[in-house]
Amino acid sequence: MSISVNKYICGYCGACVGVCPTGALELVETWIEVDNKCTGCGICQKICPLGAIEVNR
Amino acid sequence: MKDHYDVIIVGAGPGGSIAAKTAAKEGLDVLMIEKRQEIGDPVRCAEGVGKFHLKQHIEPDPRWICADVKGSCIISPDGTKVEMAEEMSGGEVGYVLERKIFDRALANESALAGAEIMVKTRATDLIIENDTVCGIKLMHLGKMYEVRSKIVIGADGMESKVGRWAGIETAVKPSDMETCAQYLVSNANIDQEFCYFYLGNEIAPAGYVWMFPKGGNKANVGIGILGSKSGEDRPIDLLNDFMEKNMPDAKIIEMVIGGVPVCGTIDRTIANGLMLVGDAARQSDPITGGGIINAMDAGKIAGEIAAKAIRNGDCSTDTLQEYEELWRKTIGKEINNSLIVKETFVKFTDEDLNSLAYSLKDINFTSMSLLDLLKALFKANKKLLWDLRGIFKDFIKNDIDFKYKAE
After folding, report:
1. Rounded distance, CA B297 to CA B182, Å?
2. Is B157 on the interface with A (CB under 8 A)?
3. Closest Cα of chain A to B180: distance in Å?
4. How far is A56 from chain B (nearest CA, A)?
5. B100 with B41: CB under 8 angstroms?
6. A2-56, what's its fold?
7. Residue A33, exposed/middle/buried by CB under 10 A (0-12, 13-18, 19+)?
8. What domains sit in chain B, N to C, each tagged with a CATH number?
C-alpha cells in the first residue's frame, strides 16, 4: 500500500507530512517524497487542501 | 560551512531566525539552514500579527507591513455582525505582514548578529550518539554532509521531521489540524483597517473564512476547516464557493495553502542536545491559528537557553528543561486556554453561532472591557459558561492575556 501525489495539483504545503502517523512523507522544496514506511492509511489524502493525494489500493 | 558549530538551527522562519539572532548575540557560533532556495517563500500564512507582541522582537518597518488593522468584525452564519475595535483590550491591535519580506528581514538580523545561513539546504537526519543529538546530516545541491553541534534547534515548521528523528511524537491527528487555502486578491473592496471572520458550518466546517487587508485594495481571503471535516469538500472548493458568492469582482493574484496544527501543547519539546520551536513544537494557537509571535517568543527563549547550556557545558535535558518550563508558563498556558475555546467552538451549530452573535451585536466593544464581553457571552449562553469555566476562572485571576493574535 502506498500513495500517489499528483504533482500538478500539489501545492507543496506539507500538511500531509504533519499528519502522517509513520513519518513516511517528506516535503522537499516543491514536492512530496514518500518512503516505504507508508501504510496507505489515507490520512494525508483526507487532509490535503487541494486533493492532490490518492491512496493506491 | 564548517564541520562544527555551537548551535544548528533547522528552518529559517520567524522562530528559527529569532533563535539564531539570540544565540549569535550571546556569542555562539551559529548555523541556520533553510531547505527552500528563498527564505520567506512560498508563504503559508494569513500574515496577521499583534502589534504589541511583534514590537518585542523587531521594530516595525513599512517595507514589510501591508496594513495597519484597527479592529475585527465577526460575521455569523445569518449575517449578524459583531465588531470589535482597537481600544477593546487596551492593545494597539495588529498588522498584516508581507511575510516574504518580513522573514528575510528577520533572517538578515540573525546574519548581522553573526549567524551563518545556508539556503537550499535540507536536514535529512540527526546525528545521535549516546542518546544525545550531536548534529545533523544535511543535503546541499545534491551532496550529503555531516555537521556537528552542541545543540540543534528544530524550527522546521508544520512538516517538522527533526522532533520525530529524536523520538518526539509530533504527528498531528486530522481532528487537530486545520487545513487551509487562501487567495491574495486585488479589487477586494473591504475596509483596509478591519479583519473579517465569517463563521458557519456550511461556509467553513469547524473553522472560519478570513479576510485580512493587504493594502492597495488587496486582501488575503482564506479558509481553514478542521481536517476531520475535510474530504468531500476541500478547503479550496469551499473557498471558491465563498469567493463566488461574496467577492465576485475580486481578482486572484496568488494562491496560498497550508496546514495549521491546533492540537494544543505536546508532551515534550526537548531531548538531549535538542529543542523544538514554533510550528515544529506545535506552538500555534488552536483558536486563532496564529503562530508567528509564539514561534518568535519560543525562538528567543531557546536561543537564550542554548547559550546558558553551552556556557555551563551541559546540553542535556537537565539544562534544556528550563526552555520547556519557560515556554509552557507563557505561550503554553495561552495555547491550553485557546484549546478549551476551540474544543467548544468546533461543537457549535450555526444556531449557536447566530444566537451568540445576536446577543453581542449591539454592544459597543470599543468602550467595554473583556470581562464585560465574557459576561455578555455567558449571559447569552449558560452552557458556554460551563464549557469555558476553566478560562473564566483564569480570566478573573487576570492570568489570561487576550492578546490580538489572528494570523
Report:
1. 26
2. yes
3. 6
4. 17
5. yes
6. Alpha-Beta Plaits (3.30.70)
7. exposed
8. 4-44+100-171+264-340 (3.50.50.60)
How far is it, in rounded angstroms, from Cα B108 to Cα B40? 12
Q: Do A49 and B164 touch (CB under 8 A)?
A: no
The per-residue pLDDT for range B212-259, each reduced to its tens digit, is 999 999 999 999 999 999 988 999 999 999 999 999 999 999 999 999
Q: Taking chain A, what is the end-to-end CA distance rounded to the nearest angstrom?
A: 6
Lowest mean pLDDT among B66-75, B179-188, B251-260: B66-75
Q: Maximum Cα–Cα distance for chain A, whole Å?
A: 28
**Chain A residues closer than 8 Å to B230 by CB:** 46-47, 49
CB atoms within 10 A of CB B131: 12
What are the structural domain ranges in chain A?
2-56
Q: Which of B42, B44, B177 sits opposite A19 (nearest CB)?
A: B177
Alpha carbons B108 and B61: distance in angstroms, whole number: 14
Q: Which residue of A6, A9, A19 is the best one to mutate when testing the B interface, meaning the one whose CB has the most B CBs within 10 A?
A: A19
